[in-house]
Amino acid sequence: MKLQKFYILTAAALLIGAVSAQAQTSNFATTAGPFDNLDHDCLVKEARGNQVLLLNEGDIVTQSFTACENGMVEKVYVSIKQSSNEGKISAVIQDSRGEEIFGVKNKVSAGFEGVLTIKLPADVKAGSVYSLKLRALNTNIVLEGQYGQASENDLHLNGWKLDGNITTAIGMRRVIERPDPVLDARNPHDDNIIEDRATEFHSNFNVFPNPFVDQVTVTFKREFKGETTVMLTDLSGNVLHREVRENPVQGQNVNLNPAYNLRPGAYALRIINDNRVYNQTLMKY
C-alpha cells in the first residue's frame, strides 16, 4: 500500500489552511536555490519537482542517499514551500541500520526564502547508504518534490514507501585522517615521522562518549611503554587539549575537558606513543 501524499502546490496550500485554520500561513519563494553552486567537495541532490509533499505536525519523512565522499556531511538543504506557523523541523542522519548518527532541530522560519539550510555534521563513508529523516514539530510543512518518478533513493512517509522524492541537497566535505608529519616528542633531535595507525585504534583504546558534550574519556586497553601523548585537535591540526602519561597501564583513563567553548562538529583524537600515532574522529554535540 502506498500513501498518496503528493499534491500540486495550490491544493497543498488550501489543505494546510484547512488543517490549521487559525494559523498564519507563510509563503515561500518558488525556486529551490542554486543547488549547483554549493561549496562542498561533493553533493548528493534529488531532482526538483512541480509537486509537493505535505507533512502534518508529527509526520516523519525519510529519504535515503549514498555518500559520495569519505568524510563529513556538512549541510543539508531542503526546499520548503509553506508552513502553517513558525514551528521547528527535526533533521537526523541515520546509518543503514536506522541508528542515529547526528540530529538537530531547526526553526522553520530559517527557510522563509524557500530553502532551509541545516548543519548536520555526520561522519559518512563513500558508497555507503544513509537516510535523512525529517519530522515536523508544532507546524505543518509543505516540501517540494515529485511523485510517480523513479529514484535511486527510497522515500518513506510515516513508514509507508512512496514513489518519488523530496527536493534536497546534501553537501559533504572530505576528511583526511592521516595527520601532518609529527616529530617524536621524547627526543627533539629525532626527526623520524610517526606512522599513522588509525586502523589499530579500536584494538588499543576505548573512547566514550562519542558524540560528547563537554568531556571525553580515553581508556587504554593494554599497557604502553614510555611517554604517551593524548591530544584533542580540530580538523586543521590545532591542539585544543593535551595530556601526557608515562607508561600507561591497561584500564587507565585519560579525561579530556577542553577549556575552549567548542562548537558542535567534528574533531580529531590523536594518541602518540613510540613513533606511532593513532587517530579517531570525535563528534561534539
Features of the shown structure:
9-stranded antiparallel β-sheet, 2 helices, 6-stranded antiparallel β-sheet, 49% strand, Immunoglobulin-like, mainly beta, 285 residues
What is the helix/strand order?
Answer: EHEEEEEEEEEEEEEEEHEEEEEEE
Quote the beta fraction.
over 45%
What top-tier CATH class of the largest domain fits best?
Mainly Beta
Shape label:
elongated
The Cα radius of gyration reads 23 Å
How would a crystallographer describe the biggest sheet? Answer: 9 strands, antiparallel
Q: Find the CATH topology of the largest domain.
A: Jelly Rolls
Distance between the terminal alpha carbons, to the nearest Å?
A: 38 Å
Secondary structure class reads mainly beta
- How many domains? The number is 2
Mean of all residue-level pLDDT scores? 78
Oligomer category: single chain
Tally of helical runs: 2
Helix content: under 10%
Quickly give the CATH architecture of the largest domain.
Sandwich
Number of β-strand runs? 23
pLDDT < 50 stretches: 1-34, 178-198
